[in-house]
């Protein structure tokens, strides 16, 4: 049975575009495999304490019954176990102050464990967790697309890609919705469809929706399309497959 780990990290609750997008991604995977085992972790609703020396020094180790802060250690172990067990990982990450939410960083700090999920080798580091399918959902108020003035300020999806690349992950897809704060009003409808990209493009043109969809690279998932319904011409949604 395939195991999927779903991580949400937006502080905007029901108003979060990323949460809605990630839910559609999960629905897609569930539609493909009814028996899919989904583990959900909302790092805002259940924040992990920041990594400190005490937690760091016990990572990946057995926790004695009388260990101080045993609950925190057990939670660390749980995060690590969820990460290792997952075949598919879907991470929704909004851009906050040019980076990932600190709650999400706390989650990353729990599974990047030397000697367990990666090891140091003469050429750098090497992943120890095998291959997984990684889907990153990045949401941003502004526009950070490559070639735009703010591109160098984007450290959310690019950072997450670096994290997963360092673990040797090769199947990483990023779905980006940006320009989301460029209008006060926005409405978002996310739909999962089974259409090829040319079919999908035709459909979008037919509806003449006022947004701009751009694809980067050669890959566009056949299974996912995102429709932003808004009067904002500057909103952009695009897919990246490195
Ligand atoms: C605390 C905070 C910091 C933010 N920082 C940025 C930023 O640096 N750049 C940006 O483009 N948008 C920024 N935004 C806007 C969010 O990226 C935008 O609201 C996005 O839609 C959030 O994703 P979500 O809808 O999934 O929550 C920030 C929003 C918040 C709440």
TrEMBL record:
UniProt-listed Gene3D superfamilies: 3.40.50.360
Keyword hit for NAD: yes
Keyword Endoplasmic reticulum attributed: no
Cofactor: how and how many bound: Binds 1 FMN per subunit.
Domain annotation Flavodoxin-like fold: ranges: 3-184
Enzyme Commission number(s) of this protein: 1.6.5.-, 1.7.1.17
Domain of life: Bacteria
Binding site for FMN: 10, 139-142
Cofactor: FMN
Short name of one Pfam family: Flavodoxin_2
Keyword vocabulary terms for this entry: Flavoprotein, FMN, NAD, Oxidoreductase
Catalytic activity: N,N-dimethyl-1,4-phenylenediamine + anthranilate + 2 NAD(+) = 2-(4-dimethylaminophenyl)diazenylbenzoate + 2 NADH + 2 H(+); 2 a quinone + NADH + H(+) = 2 a 1,4-benzosemiquinone + NAD(+)
Enzyme class: oxidoreductase
Cross-referenced PANTHER family: FMN-DEPENDENT NADH-AZOREDUCTASE 1, FMN-DEPENDENT NADH:QUINONE OXIDOREDUCTASE
The family this protein is said to belong to: Belongs to the azoreductase type 1 family.
Assembly mode: Homodimer.
Role, per record: Quinone reductase that provides resistance to thiol-specific stress caused by electrophilic quinones. Also exhibits azoreductase activity. Catalyzes the reductive cleavage of the azo bond in aromatic azo compounds to the corresponding amines.
Protein name (record): FMN dependent NADH:quinone oxidoreductase
Organism: Neokomagataea tanensis NBRC 106556
Underlying gene: azoR
